[in-house]
Automatic annotation (TrEMBL):
This is Signal peptide peptidase-like 2A. The gene is SPPL2A. It comes from the Eukaryota. Residues 72-149 form the PA domain. SMART domains: PSN (SM00730).
Amino acid sequence: MGRQTPLPRAAAALLWGFLLPLTAAHEAILHASGNGTPSPSKDYCMLYNPHWTSLPSTLENATSTSLMNLTTTPLCNVSDIPPDGIKNKAVVVQWGTCHFLEKAKIAQTGGAEALLVANNSVLFPPSGNKSEFLDVKILIAFINHKDFKDMKQTLGDNIVVKMYSPSWPNFDYTMVVIFVIAVFTVALGGYWSGLIELENMKAMTNTEDREMRKKKEEYFTFSPLTVIIFVVICCIMMVLLYFFYKWLVYVMIAIFCIASAMSLYNCLAALVRKIQCGQCTFTCHGKSIEVRLIFLSGLCIAVAVVWAVFRNEDRWAWILQDILGIAFCLNLIKTLKLPNFKSCVILLGLLLLYDVFFVFITPFITKNGESIMVELAAGPFGNNEKNDGNLVEATAQPSAPHEKLPVVIRVPKLAYFSVMSVCLMPVSILGFGDIIVPGLLIAYCRRFDVEIGSSIYYVSSTIAYAIGMILTFVVLVLMKKGQPALLYLVPCTLITASLVAWRRKEMKKFWKGNSYQMMDHLDYATNEENPGTAGEQIVQQ
C-alpha cells in the first residue's frame, strides 16, 4: 500500500504549476542621435503598451522628434510646462508625484508627441486604468533613468530620437522548443507512471514484494473531493499572490528550489540505478547507501542553489530553470494519481474554468484592468507596490516585485544578434500547469493501458495533447495575445480519451477506473480480502 501524502503537502508542491499561460513582452527601440559629424547615435530599450499606441516596425519609417528634458519638473499641472513650450517634442519626465497618465494628458495639451517616463526601477510596460484618460493619444513609454543619463553624457543636450518596435516573425522557433519540451515531458511522465503501475501489479502477486513497495512508494491519489478542495486552494493562493506578491514570491521560490531539487534527484536516480557499474555502497544505521547517489544528491542541490542565486540572469539562468521545471513536472506526473476518468474530468474541467477566469474575466474586476494571471506570469507590471489599487513609486533597489514566479518553462527569443538585444531578452513561456494537468490524464491513460494490455489510450491522448499545443500556438499567432493553453489542451485530451473509450466500448470501466486503480485508491482493501484476484489478472495479461 502506498502512503497517502497529506493534502497540504501535495498541494504546496503542485500549487504554483497551475498559474500561468503563455505571455509576451512589449519592447521597443529608442534610437537617439546627437549633433556632430558624423552624428553619434545609440539605441536604448523602452517599453510601451501596444494596446494604447502603435509604433512603426522599422527605423526608416520612424519619425524624428526632438527630445526635451523635464525630469526636474513634476508635470502634474499645465503650469509646469516651460515657457518655450513642448510642441512636437518627446518629453522626458521623472516617475512619481502624480500618475503618468495625468502627465501624459498635460503633455498632450502642450502639443508633445510622446511622453517618456524615466524610471529608477526595472522597466515595465505602462499599465493601468485608462478609462478616465481616453482622450490621451500620444505615445507613453518607459525608459530606464540610467539609460537617460547615459544618453545625455554620450550624445549631449541636443538629442533627436526615433522610436520603433521591430516586429517579430509570426513563426517563432521558441514555439518549436516549447512544443518539444511539453510533449516530451507529458509523454515521458505518463510512460513512467505506467512502468510503476506495472511493477505494482506484479508485486501484488508476492506478499513480501508488496509490503516492500508499500514502504518504498510515496504517492498522492486525487479523489473527486480532493480535486475540488485543491482547485479552491489554487484560487485562494492566486488571490493571495496578487495582493501579497512581494512577500509570497520568495516563499514560492524557496519551495520551488526544494521541490525541484528533489524532483531532479528522483528523475536522475531512476536512470543511475539502471547502470550496473559503480555500485559502491556503505552501511549507515543499518541501511545500505550508494556513494554515487550521495554525489547525485549534491549535484541536484547545487543546480537548485545556482539557479536561486543567479535566477535573474536572463542570458543563461533560464536553462537551469527549464531543467528543474521539467524534472518537477515529470516527478509530479509520475507521483500524483487520478484513480479514474471521473476524477480526470473534474480536475481538468475545474482548472480550465480557473484558467479562463483568471485570464479573461479578472480584467473586468481588477482596478487596473489587467489580468491577474498575466500580471503574475511576468511579475506585477510596474515593479510597483499596490496601495489601494493605485501605483506608487518604487525604489531602484532590487525588491520582490522584480522577482518572477518560477512556475514556467522559459525559452528566450533570438534577440541576441538583433537590435532588440539592448532590451531584456524577450521570452516565450509555458506554465507548469499546462504540462502537469494534461499530463495527469495521460498518466491515467497509460496506467489503464497497462491493466488492459494496450497502448491505445496513452498514444491517442499524447497525440491529442500535441494537437492541442499546436492549436494554442496557432491562436497565439493569430490573436497576438497570450492564451490560456488549458483552453485548448483540456478539450483535445478529454474528448479524445472519451472517444477512444466509447469506440472500444470501455467507457464504464474507463470512467470508474479499473479494478487495480480502485484497489490502490481504497487502500488495497479489496486485495487484502481477495489476494488471488490480482494474481489472476496478471496471469491473464
